[in-house]
Write a structure and sequence with these properties.
Blueprint lengths: L1 E3 L2 H10 L4 E6 L5 H13 L2 E6 L19 H10 L4 E3 L3 H4 L17 H5 L3 H16 L3 E5 L3 H13 L5 E5 L19 H6 L2 H14 L5 H13 L4 E9 L14 E9 L2 E9 L5
Parallel strand pairs: 1-4, 2-3, 2-5, 3-4, 5-6
Antiparallel strand pairs: 7-8, 8-9
The chain binds adenosine monophosphate.
Adenosine monophosphate (AMP) binds next to helix 2 and strand 5.
């Protein structure tokens, strides 16, 4: 496994290796969710590239950029075990050198949910992903359903800007009690960790109602909110029952729905979601 820091090194290694390339963009502090993307990329491509970069432009001024957990040695060991070919761990100045002034803005689908709660977040995400696509030139790129709006934004950008890459979306990997794996779960104290599965329980309650025939979007939001309200440590930022493609809040959820939420527990801001109807195999 080659570990490099410069754009030139990625380009030269990538171009020297013929065959298809799969790319897995990450911010590191890897867990089984990330590794599920790596394994899928490994299975579907001749070569696998992984980026580890805590991208400052997708963090707001009062967010957790400095506190974001990092453990490069452990990450590299895990990626070596997965048979990854190339890892890019650039310093910030390699990605955003002095004088940098170009950003990618995806418009409508970034106005809701995480985009509304975190102004500028998706401008940072779209910009770094566009740069990663230009640097790695992958045939396929792998993203987690865990970040549902991110998937919608990236798919929109790829279509609008004609990036020659296939976006592969992988299911959310959960802990046994339902908590979606996240690098940010490390912020939780044991007591807060015990409270955190309430997000999954809220999603399951709305899913069960939907499966039993409930199609009123407002009612689905109420069901999620009611479950979240049972947990004193959870402070709900938003709950949503939205159109899975436009991300607009739905009154009528009969044509499918993206259930999602952002909840603060202690200093962790947790997000989770579920798509209905559940996607087939
Ligand atoms: P991050 O390092 O948080 O930027 O995540 C890198 C990629 O891993 C993104 O495409 C995430 O959606 C994906 N990911 C993060 N957590 C999970 C999870 N629990 N299950 C599946 N994919 C995940």
């Amino acid at each position: 496994m080659k570990v490099v820091t410069t754009v030139a090194e990625v380009r030269s290694y990538r171009n020297a290796a013929a065959g298809t390339w799969g790319l897995v963009p990450t911010m590191g502090y890897l867990h089984e969710g990330h590794l599920s993307l790596v394994r899928r990329a490994r299975a579907e491509n001749d070569h696998v590239g992984v980026s580890i970069f805590v991208n400052p432009t997708q963090f707001g001024p009062h967010e957790d950029l400095e506190a974001y957990p990092r453990d490069l040695e452990r990450d590299l060991k895990l990626l070596r075990q997965e048979g990854v070919d190339l890892v890019w761990t650039p310093p910030v100045e390699e990605v955003y050198p002095p004088g940098y002034q170009t950003y990618v803005t995806v418009e409508q689908v970034t106005r809701y949910l995480e985009g509304a709660a975190r102004p500028g977040h998706f401008r940072g995400v779209a910009t770094i992903v566009a740069k990663l696509f230009n640097v790695f030139q992958p045939d396929r790129a792998y993203f987690g359903q865990k970040d549902a709006q991110q998937v919608v934004v990236i798919q929109r950008m790829v279509e609008d800007l004609n990036f020659p890459v296939e976006i592969v979306v992988c299911p959310t990997v959960r802990e046994p009690d339902g908590l979606a794996m996240s690098s940010r779960n490390t912020y939780l104290t044991p007591e807060q960790r015990a409270a955190a599965p309430v997000l999954y329980r809220a999603l399951c309650a709305a899913r069960d109602a939907w499966l039993a025939g409930e199609r009123d979007g407002e009612r689905l939001r109420q069901i999620m909110r009611a479950v979240l309200d049972t947990e004193p440590l959870a402070e709900t930022e938003y709950v949503s029952a939205a159109d899975p493609w436009t991300l607009e809040e739905l009154g009528d959820a009969s044509r499918g729905v993206l259930l999602s939420m952002a909840v603060r527990i202690g200093r962790a801001r947790l997000i989770d979601n579920m798509r209905l109807p559940p996607e087939g195999p």
